[in-house]
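Entries read chain and fold; for instance:
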Amino acid sequence: MCHIVFSTKERATVLRENRREEFFRYAWGVHQGLNCHLHRINAMDDHVHILMSLHTSLSVADYMRELKANTSRWIKQEGIFPGFDGW
């Protein structure tokens, strides 16, 4: 099991609570696509905590690249966190 913590670019406080649930559902889908198990996810305005089990065919670096790229693209397309400029 891994505990992953990552922040928004320049620790921007843009991950507003009223839209986080949508983000959590999307991130859960990314985990399913990577054959990883998401145990818990939570966030504050400027960072995300994830407790997950990594699939044996995936390195942590590959997992992070896929998770950040997919969630960043989706957040920008959906506009759920105005001012979000990346991780």
About this structure: The mean pLDDT is 97.
